[in-house]
Amino acid sequence: MYIHGLGLSRPFKDRFVVKKELVEDALRKAIEASGNPVPQQIVLQRIPFSGQWGWASPVCFKMASDEAKSGRRINVKERAQELAEGIKRRLESQGRFHKVAAENGYLNLYFETGQVAEDLIRQVLAEKEAFGRGQAKAEKVMIEYSQPNTHKAFHVGHLRNVCLGNALTNIVDFAGFETVPANYLGDIGLHVIKCLWCYLKYHRGQEPRDPKERGRWLGEVYAEAAGKLSAGDEYRTRALALTATLLTGGISPSLRKRAISHLFQHAEAGLAEHHGDREWRKDLLTVLELLLTDQSETFNAIAHRPIADWVWSLWLSLAGWLETARQECAADSQEAQRIDDWASRYQKIGQDSEAWGLARDLRRLFQKWESNDPEIVDLWKRTRQWSLDDF
User: Fold this and answer.
1) Which of 356, 362, 384 is closest to 226 using CA atoms?
2) Is the pLDDT of residue 272 over 80?
3) What is the mean pLDDT of residues 194-221?
4) What does the alpha-carbon distance between residue 391 and residue 389 come to, in Å, rounded to a whole number?
5) What secondary structure, in 3-state letters, does the chain show?
6) Is the model's pLDDT at 44 over the cut of 90?
7) What is the CA 272 to chain-centroid distance, rounded?
8) Helix axis angle, 76-94 relative to 15-33, nearest 10°?
9) How many Cβ atoms are within 10 Å of 170's Cβ, its own excluded?
10) pTM of this structure
C-alpha cells in the first residue's frame, strides 16, 4: 500500500529484503574473486517466474559495458555471458543458493522455495501480532474519516467510510507512525437548514416523547424536507419554462407585445407589497425586456432566484392574460386554438403558491441562521443533540 506524502510502501518487514542483502554480498565476493572490478552499484530484480524465489542481476552487462568503454574491442552481449558463467561457478562454490543460472548475460540466483516458506512461518510464529510492524517514525499522521451529518440518517455510505477510515488508521499505525484518528461532525450547512425549515413549517412540537427516538425521527424530517424542496424546484422550473417558451416564440409577435404589456402592468402592481423595492422593479423590467428579445436563457437565470417574488406575480398575471387573449382572438380560430392550447398547459401546472414559495422560505430561514437569530440557534442546539444521542 502507498500513501502519498508519507513515503509509505509495504507496512511490514519484508523478509525477502534480508535475502536481497545476502545476494548482493555474495555477488560482490564472487566478482572480486574473479579478478574483475566490482561495480559501485549492483542492480537486483526479483525473479519473474511463478513459484520461484530469487534475484536476477544484469551486473555482467554493466561490467562488459565498462570494458568496452575503456577501449577493449568486444561484443558486449557475448562478454556479459562469459563473465556470467565465470561468476556463476564462484557463486555455486559458496553454497548459499539452491540454484545459480547464467542466461543471456544475466545471473539468476534461486532460493529453495520450501526453505523460504519455512523461514517466513517461523518468523510469524515467533513475532505473533508484532510481525510486520514498522519501526517507529518521527512523523505524526492525522486521518479524518466517518464525518456523519447531524439532522440526517446515518446511512450505509457513512458506515462504509467508518470501515475504510478505521482500516487505514490501523495500517498507518502498524507502519510505525504516530496516528491520530479524527472525526468531524457535519452539524452546520444547508442540510441542517432544510431539516429545521421542515420542522418549523410542518412538525413543530411533534417530536417523539422518547428522547431516544428523536434522532431517527429527525432523519425522517430531513428526508421529507428534501422531497418537498425538490418538488418545489420542479414546479418552479416547469412554470418558468412555460412562461419563457410562450413569450419567446409560442405566440405571434403582436400578441407577445400585448402580453408583455399586460404582464408588466399587473406585475408592477405588486411593487406596493414590496414597498417600492428598486431591485424588484429592476429585475422585472430586465426580464420583460429579455422576453421581448427572445433571451430566455438569461430570463431563467434571473427568474430562478429563490426570493424573486415578482416572478410569482408574473405567473399569476399570465393566467389573466390568457383569458383576455382568448376573447381577443375569438375571430381568428387558428390563433384562438393556439391560446387554448397554452391555457391548457398552464392549467396542468396550476397555481401552487406553497410549492412556489418553498425555496424563498428556505432562503429566509438561512438568513436568520446567518444573523444568529436566538430562536433558530436554540432550535439548532436542541435538534443537534437529538442526532448525537442517536449515534
Assistant:
1) 362
2) no
3) 95
4) 6
5) CCECCCCECCCCCCHHHHHHHHHHHHHHHHHHHCCCCCCCCCCCEECCCCCCEEEEECHHHHHHHHHHHCCCCCCHHHHHHHHHHHHHHHHHHHCCCCEEEEECCEEEEEECHHHHHHHHHHHHHHHHHHCCCCCCCCCEEEEECCCCECCCCCCHHHHHHHHHHHHHHHHHHHCCCEEEEECCCECCCHHHHHHHHHHHHHCCCCCCCCHHHHHHHHHHHHHHHHHHHHHHHHHHHHHHHHHHHHHHHHCCHHHHHHHHHHHHHHHHHHHHHHCCCHHHHHHHHHHHHHHHCCCHHHHHHHHCCCCCHHHHHHHHHHHHHHHHHHHHCCCCHHHHHHHHHHHHHHHHHCCCHHHHHHHHHHHHHHHHHHCCCHHHHHHHHHHHHHHHHHC
6) yes
7) 47
8) 110
9) 14
10) 0.63
First to last CA, the chain: 32
In this prediction, residue 11 has a pLDDT band, given cuts at 50, 70 and 90, of very low
CB distance 123 to 131 below 8 Å: yes
pLDDT at 385 over 60: yes
Phi, psi of 243 (to 5 degrees): -60, -50
Angle, alpha carbons 316-320-325 (nearest 5°): 140
In the chain, pLDDT over 90 holds for what percent of residues?
47
**pLDDT of 23 over the 70 cut:** yes
* Residues 6+ away with beta carbon under 8 Å from 179: 140, 141, 142, 143, 169, 172, 173
Residue 304 CA to residue 241 CA, distance in Å, equals 11
Nearest Cα to 143, choosing from 161, 169, 167, 176? 169
Three cell numbers, residue 63: 561490467
Confidence of residue 13 (pLDDT cuts 50, 70, 90): very low
What's the CA gap between 284 and 251, in Å, rounded? 21
Q: Which residues of 112-141 are buried (b: 16+ CB within 10 A; e: fewer)?
A: eeeebeeeeeeeeeeeeeeebebeeeeeeb
**Residues 147, 154: Cα–Cα separation, whole Å:** 10
